[in-house]
């Protein structure tokens, strides 16, 4: 049985040995092309040894979270390992050369993010890996030390205490970013590393996260850097390429220019996600109705001390080795030609994006 005394998973803990490394020629109807994998010596992939096998899966959910997962995610403890095996079998059968982890804990992230719908979980897994090819500027040499300057700027942090629903709060302060210091893509790299760290605990996989974005200090110099192509990529990865549940996006201190910023982002948001955006302006009482004062820092009318981004920065920097293993390896889809349509549904054409951006830019200057 599960070794945790407080776990209600009701199942045995098993170890799944990771299969041999694979690469993936996507299904023919998805538009993927297999250009032919190269042969590596046993135990070596393009000169890199494989990462160590993951530890055996251990259920860490409390009885309350087991019940929540059953109600909200259709996760049945008695069927959990069967569902994981079903997704594993789909990967091995439909994408036999995909280089990916296949252990229980990893696959559960994708099943939970898609409410145990096998097909949608598999597509999310493919998108997760395909994003590395589609946006190499983000994923090349992705490690905390490479974004130390972002972590030190105060652009992002995670508040030390979760909210009453058990959701950790990712706090973003885009006004801290100066375009003359470094490109916006470095902010995206830091956000992605943060999400990778946050999604590791099973509690976050069930509860999801909340985003709090403070637009104080954001002006035309920051806003004009966010064009539709960049917005499409960021939103596409968050919505369709990462196994995390974003339950709310709270916006505070938004300036007049935010109307133009949101006009860039909104076309790429699914209806359900767009409904989760909450605009508070400078009304802290409104913010406190969404996030209680008990978990907020003093800067936002809370009682949880001063906002300190250094603690989260140190958490990421101390995790350097695990990110090197995860991201500083050969591309899992390096031998494939992957179309952009893998990640983004209903995307605008390049001409539509440019036309849209012209209109938005004039709107940004007008608002400013």
Throw out a few tags for this protein:
alpha/beta; Helicase, Ruva Protein, domain 3; Phosphatidylinositol Transfer Protein Sec14p; 5-stranded mixed beta sheet; 16 helices; globular; disordered C terminus; phosphatidylinositol bisphosphate binding; CRAL/TRIO_N_dom; CRAL-TRIO_dom; CRAL-TRIO_dom_sf
Structure overview:
- It is a single chain.
- The chain is of the alpha/beta class and 368 residues long.
- Among the domains are: 63-134, Helicase, Ruva Protein, domain 3, CATH 1.10.8; 147-328, Phosphatidylinositol Transfer Protein Sec14p (3-Layer(aba) Sandwich), CATH 3.40.525.10.
- It is 42% helix and 8% strand.
- The protein is built from 16 helices and seven strands.
- It has helices at residues 63-73, 80-94, 104-113, 118-134, 136-139, 148-153, 184-198, 202-207, 220-223, 228-240, 258-265, 271-274, 284-290, 310-317, 320-327, 350-367; strands spanning 33-34, 156-158, 168-172, 209-214, 246-252, 277-281, 336-337.
- The protein has a five-stranded mixed beta sheet with strand order 2-3-4-5-6, sandwiched between helices.
- Helix 2 (80-94) crosses helix 4, helix 3 (104-113) crosses helix 4 (118-134) and helix 11 runs antiparallel to helix 16.
- The protein is globular.
- The model is unreliable at 11-51 and 339-368 (pLDDT under 50).
- This is Tocopherol (alpha) transfer protein-like.
- Residues 25-51 are annotated as: Disordered.
- Residues 143-308 form the CRAL-TRIO domain.
- It comes from Lepisosteus oculatus (Spotted gar).
- GO terms for molecular function: phosphatidylinositol bisphosphate binding.
């Amino acid at each position: 049985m599960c070794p945790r005394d407080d776990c209600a998973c009701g199942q045995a803990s098993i170890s799944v040995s990771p299969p041999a490394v694979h690469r993936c020629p996507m299904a023919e109807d998805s538009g993927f092309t297999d250009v032919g994998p190269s042969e590596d010596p046993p135990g070596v992939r393009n000169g890199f040894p494989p990462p160590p096998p993951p530890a055996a899966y251990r259920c860490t959910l409390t009885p309350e979270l087991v019940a929540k997962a059953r109600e909200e995610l259709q996760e049945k403890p008695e069927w959990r390992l069967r569902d994981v095996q079903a997704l594993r079998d789909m990967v091995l059968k439909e994408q036999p050369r995909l280089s990916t982890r296949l252990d229980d804990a990893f696959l559960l992230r994708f099943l939970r993010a898609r409410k145990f719908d096998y097909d949608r979980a598999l597509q999310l897994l493919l998108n997760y890996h395909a994003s590395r090819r589609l946006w190499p500027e983000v994923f090349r040499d992705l490690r905390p030390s490479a974004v130390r300057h972002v972590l030190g700027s105060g652009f992002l942090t995670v508040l030390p205490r979760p909210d009453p629903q058990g959701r950790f709060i990712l706090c973003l302060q885009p006004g801290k970013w100066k375009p003359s210091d470094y490109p916006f893509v470095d902010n995206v790299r830091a956000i992605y590393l943060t999400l990778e760290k946050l999604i590791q605990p099973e509690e976050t996989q069930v509860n999801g996260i909340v985003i709090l974005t403070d637009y104080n200090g954001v002006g035309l110099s920051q806003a004009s850097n966010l064009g539709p192509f960049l917005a499409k990529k960021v939103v596409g990865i968050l919505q369709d390429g990462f196994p995390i549940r974003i339950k709310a996006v709270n916006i505070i201190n938004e300036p007049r220019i935010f109307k133009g910023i949101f006009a860039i982002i909104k076309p790429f948001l699914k209806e359900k996600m767009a409904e989760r955006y909450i605009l508070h302006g400078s009304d802290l009482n409104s913010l406190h109705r969404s996030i209680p004062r008990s978990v907020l820092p003093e800067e936002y009318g809370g009682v949880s001390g001063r906002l300190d981004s250094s603690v989260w920065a140190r958490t990421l920097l101390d995790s350097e080795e695990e990110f090197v293993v995860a991201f500083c390896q050969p591309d899992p889809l390096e031998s494939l030609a992957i179309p952009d349509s893998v990640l983004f549904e209903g995307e605008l054409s390049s001409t539509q994006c440019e036309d849209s951006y012209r209109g938005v830019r004039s709107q940004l200057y007008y608002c400013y």
